[in-house]
Write a structure and sequence with these properties.
Helix content: 40-55%
Strand content: 15-25%
Strand order of the largest sheet: 1-2-4-3-5-6-9-10
Number of domains: 1
Shape: globular
CATH class: Alpha Beta
Radius of gyration: 20 Å
CATH superfamily: Alpha/Beta hydrolase fold, catalytic domain
Low-confidence stretches: 1-24
Largest sheet: 8 strands, mixed
Number of helices: 12
Oligomer: single chain
Mean pLDDT: 92
Length: 354
C-alpha cells in the first residue's frame, strides 16, 4: 500500500511540475499575464479586446481589465457585467476568464483586483476586510458605467467564490445592479468565524484574541502578521482532505499560478471578517438572482443558505453544475461552458433595454 501511495504521489508531483511549467510559459507568452485557457494574447480589430485600466477608489489606485465585445464601437450602447474575483484570486485568473467569455456574448465587462491585493494599491498588503471588498464592487460599477458604450441601465454583477459573498452584500443596497449572480459562492465571514464546514467553532475566542494582538502589533509599528498559506509542497497538497483547499492549492500554486495571487491575508483582518456575514439582510435583494454551484462542491452549503434567505428576489434560481467541485468551476471547460451559457441566458433576460 505504501508503495502504491508513493507512486501516486510521484505521479501527482510530475503532473504538478508540468502544469506549473505550462503556466509560467503561458504567462511569459501572454502580454497581459492572463493564466486561463483561451486568454486573449493580442487585441484584434473586430474581435473581443482587453483594455488594462486604472482608477482611484477612496484614494487607492485600482488595477482592472475591461473587456469589450466583438465589433465594439463607442457610439453603441452595450449591457455591462462587473466580475468580482475569489479570495486569493486576481483579475488574471478565473474572474478574467468569465469576464472574457461574457464579453464574447456581447457584454462590456470588468474584472478588477481588490484594493490591497493583486496589482491594486493599498497598505498593508493582503488586507482582506469585507467593507473594502464590498466597496471594490461598488467601485467597479462606478468606473464601468462611465465607460464609453456602457449602458448604465443594463448593469449586472457576477461574484465568484469570496467575490460571490461580497457581491450579494453589495447588491443588497446597490440597486444600480439590475441582475445579480454568483458562482461557487463563499461566505468569507462565516468561514473565518466558524471554520470551513463549522470545524473551528470551539476556537472562535482564541482566534479573535490572536487577531486583536496582531492589530495591536501593527499599530505599534511592529511586523505585520499574516494568516493563510504562503507556499505549499506537493506532498502537503496531496494530504489535504477537503476538495476546496486541495484543489485550490493546485489551482493557485500550480496550474494557474500568478505572482500577484496569494492565499495570505493579514491576521488583523479577522477582527472584521469574523463579525461579518454575507447572508445578513439577504431579504434586501429584490433584483433577479442566479446562484450557480457545483453539485459536488464542499462549499455548496453556503450557496444553499444564502439562496434560502433571498426571500424578496424578483426571481431566483439555483443552478447546479452536475459533478463539479468548487475549484473545477473556475477552469474546467465542460463546467465553464455550462456556467457561461446559463449566465448569458440570465443576463439576456434580465438586462433588457429600458
Amino acid at each position: 500500500m505504501k508503495k502504491i501511495k508513493s507512486i501516486i504521489l510521484a505521479m501527482v508531483t510530475v503532473l504538478n511540475i508540468a502544469d506549473a511549467q505550462t503556466t509560467k510559459k503561458s504567462q511569459h507568452q501572454n502580454p497581459y499575464t492572463l493564466v486561463y485557457g483561451g486568454a486573449i494574447t493580442e487585441n484584434v480589430p473586430g474581435k473581443v479586446n482587453i483594455h488594462p485600466v486604472t482608477y482611484t477608489l477612496n484614494g487607492i489606485t485600482i488595477a482592472a481589465n475591461v473587456y469589450t465585445p466583438a465589433g465594439y464601437t463607442e457610439s453603441k450602447k452595450y449591457p455591462v457585467v462587473v466580475v468580482a474575483h475569489p479570495n486569493g484570486g486576481i483579475k488574471e485568473q478565473t474572474a478574467g476568464l468569465y469576464a472574457q467569455r461574457l464579453a464574447e456574448a456581447g457584454y462590456i465587462t470588468i474584472a478588477a483586483d481588490a484594493a490591497y491585493q493583486g496589482a491594486s494599491g493599498g497598505e498593508p498588503r493582503h488586507t482582506d476586510k469585507p467593507e473594502y471588498r464590498v466597496e471594490d464592487i461598488h467601485g467597479m460599477a462606478d468606473f464601468i458605467t462611465q465607460y464609453k458604450g456602457a449602458d448604465a441601465n443594463r448593469l449586472g454583477v457576477l461574484g465568484i467564490c469570496g467575490g460571490g459573498g461580497y457581491t450579494i452584500k453589495a447588491a443588497q443596497s446597490d440597486k444600480r445592479f439590475k441582475a445579480v449572480s454568483t458562482l461557487s459562492m463563499f461566505n468569507s465571514g462565516e468561514v473565518r468565524r466558524n471554520g470551513f464546514q463549522n470545524s473551528q467553532v470551539n476556537t472562535i475566542q482564541e482566534r479573535l484574541k490572536k487577531a486583536s494582538e496582531a492589530r495591536a502589533q501593527e499599530i505599534a509599528g511592529g511586523e505585520i502578521i499574516y494568516a493563510g498559506v504562503a507556499s505549499i509542497t506537493d506532498e502537503e497538497i496531496a494530504k489535504t482532505k477537503t476538495d476546496l483547499y486541495r484543489e485550490g492549492y493546485e489551482y493557485y500554486y500550480r496550474t494557474h499560478a500568478h505572482p500577484n495571487s496569494t492565499f495570505l491575508y493579514t491576521m488583523s483582518s479577522l477582527l472584521d471578517l469574523m463579525t461579518w456575514d454575507a447572508t445578513t439582510n439577504m431579504d434586501l435583494i429584490n433584483q433577479p438572482l442566479l446562484m450557480i454551484a457545483g453539485s459536488k462542491a464542499d462549499t455548496k452549503y453556503m450557496t444553499d443558505e444564502a439562496f434560502s434567505k433571498a426571500t424578496n428576489a424578483k426571481s431566483k434560481e439555483l443552478f447546479l453544475l452536475d459533478g463539479a467541485t468548487h475549484i473545477q468551476t473556475y477552469w474546467k471547460p465542460e463546467y465553464v461552458n455550462q456556467a457561461v451559457s446559463k449566465l448569458t441566458d440570465f443576463f439576456n433576460k434580465t438586462l433588457t433595454e429600458q
